[in-house]
Amino acid sequence: MPANLTPDYLKADKWFREAATDEERILALEEMMRVIPRHKGTDHMRAELRKKYSALKESAEKKKKVSHGPDPFHILRSGAGQVVLLGLPNSGKSSIVSAVTHAKVHVADFPFATSIPMPGMAQFEDIKIEIVDMPPITAEYAPTGIVNTLRNCDLIGVVIDLSSDIGQQTKVCLDFLESRRLLPDPDNPVIDESGKSLARKCFVIATKKDAASAEQLDNLKQKLTKPMEITAIFVNDKTSLYKMMADIFRLLDIVRIYAKKPGQHPDMKDPFVLPKGSNVMDLAQSIHKELAEKLKTARCWGSGVHDGQNVHKTHILNDKDIIELHFA
Ligand SMILES: Nc1nc2c(ncn2[C@@H]2O[C@H](COP(=O)(O)OP(=O)(O)O)[C@@H](O)[C@H]2O)c(=O)[nH]1
Ligand SMILES: [Mg+2]
Q1: From the CA of 105, which ligand is nearest?
Q2: 109 CA to centre of ligand 1 in angstroms
Q3: Where are the strands (E) in the chain, listed by range?
């Protein structure tokens, strides 16, 4: 192998060799093709990579056509956002999902009790957020397909057990995320061919705070090499779980909007959920695409406006705004 290959390339190459599925091999190859140095000396290697890539793509397409049954690692999104948990065995992942959702997950004090992703719906105030329990990773082993689940979520919750070896857990989790390009890197943002970022937003859920000394939290802060929010919980302490859900809601960067018909009370039970930064027109479109073209005016009850103030179509919506839409 030529000596001038970069650490990024070697990481991607390692990922490729360790990948257990064609889907993951394809992702790793894309990464290899992206980071391989472009000069005469790598011409041959690049041609080989492209060949391997086309062959894999083709065989994956064929397999897709004959495959039966759904992929258990493909978790359809539902609710206002999807959070996928990542952590070592026994870090407390299943306990989180079991505490905040009705999903029948397996909490156990033996490792590898969870073998495929298990989604549950958590209620946060008036919306539902999906939390996905995951099989564990270790320094040597990551389950087949797990990268695909992580790539498609809105938020990754890195679960760290405060009562256990924090240095080792953070290293295993961050190395895993980094080598799969899942860790956001503002200096080196990576996007796929459709313009979607490969990295996902990540935060840390520090578990078992009842069983750990206060210094462990400081220890964790020091071990994190990337800026990441930490929310500490004890699974039997409702206040800490509520705070975790509030943190998740905030990190999802979404707003809840209550639509109101003129002369009627707003529907306060079932808000529309939109990305933060959405405006009145975006709301109208999410309610009804064709009707949105006929939007004339809107009134807003909420923060930063007088009650019932007329607002423009480009008015940016705030969480919990009530909006009355007037159509032509
Ligand atoms: N003391 C304490 N134990 C916990 C807490 N959360 C989970 N555990 C225990 O840790 C063990 C592993 O939990 P589990 O959720 O199955 O971990 P997973 O392998 O990451 O899914 C179980 O025995 C749990 O009862 C916590 O907040 N405090
Ligand atoms: Mg589990």
Answers
A1: 2
A2: 7
A3: 82-87, 118-124, 127-133, 155-161, 201-207, 230-232, 254-260, 272-275, 295-301, 309-311, 321-327
Give residues whose Cβ lies within 5 Å of ion ligand 2. 93-94, 113-114
Q: Which fold has domain 254-327?
A: Ubiquitin-like (UB roll) (3.10.20)
How far apart CA 132 and CA 49 sit, in angstroms, is 34
- Cα 4 from chain centroid? 34
The structure tokens listed for 287 are 């309610």
Superfamily of domain 82-251 in CATH is P-loop containing nucleotide triphosphate hydrolases (3.40.50.300)
Placement of tokens 């405060």 in the chain: 162
Give the three-class secondary structure for 125: coil
**pLDDT tens digits for 203-216?**
999 999 999 999 99
Q: Are strands 230-232 and 254-260 parallel, antiparallel or unpaired?
A: unpaired
The domain segmentation of the chain, as residue ranges, is: 7-66, 82-251, 254-327
Copy the structure tokens of residue 154. 């809105």
Q: Give residue 265's region: left, alpha or beta (phi > 0; psi -120 to 50).
A: beta
Q: Whose CA is nearest to atom 3 of ligand 1?
A: 208
pLDDT in tens, 12-69: 898 888 776 777 788 889 989 988 999 988 999 999 999 999 999 888 888 767 666 6
If you ran DSSP here, which 8-state letter would residue 195 be given?
Answer: S
